[in-house]
Amino acid sequence: MKIIVVVGLPLSGKTTHCKIISEKKGIPLVETGTFVFKEVEKLGLEATPENVQKVAGECKSISDSYFTERAVEFIEQTHNDAPAVFISGIKARSEVDFLIKKFGKDNVIIIAFHASPDTRFARLGNPDRTDDTRGSKTEEDKAMREDRTRFELRDRKELGYGVGTLIALSDHVINTEDRKWPYHNFDYTIREFGLIMDDIISGA
Length: 204
Known about the structure:
The chain has helices at residues 14-25, 33-42, 49-62, 66-78, 93-103, 117-122, 127-131, 135-146, 148-161, 163-168, 186-202; strands at 2-7, 29-31, 84-88, 108-114, 172-175. α2 (33-42) packs across α3 and α8 packs across α9 (148-161). The chain is an alpha/beta fold. It contains eleven helices and five strands. Helices cover 59% and strands 12% of the residues. Strands 2-3-1-4-5 form a five-stranded parallel sheet.
């Protein structure tokens, strides 16, 4: 099985691209954030930003790759026969190291999605952000649209977790820039991503 770690700063397009390729090629998409909310629900807490942050911190104090480990358990239970699985939400090198130890270096591929801050900020107004996210995320987007400083602080937070390191170490980079040169439209980047996945699967 190939484990495809998809990384990128918020609104770089990773989830949107993975969902489309997942449907086209039957590659499951597993998001580590799902397991954060499961831990919150298990404790009978409301999924407020404060509770989510508190529970996530407690779990990561047990293991820095806690939620990646839960994601792998889920994959082994439900997608064990899949030739490849997307994992989104990984932010730290330690989480990738866990996957490499589990599946082998040749079976863990990092694909990064990249776009400029201006392009990603503009995407806060995209309709699919409202249609396809939790209500709390919609409110967060609204707050960031009204105060760009919030958006920039979130980027810094993500980079502080180690996302920048994973982007630098990625095996493939998908440039989703659509407002500044060199820009690629969505059809182009979906096709590019699909071809990369064809190569990865054929070499499985």
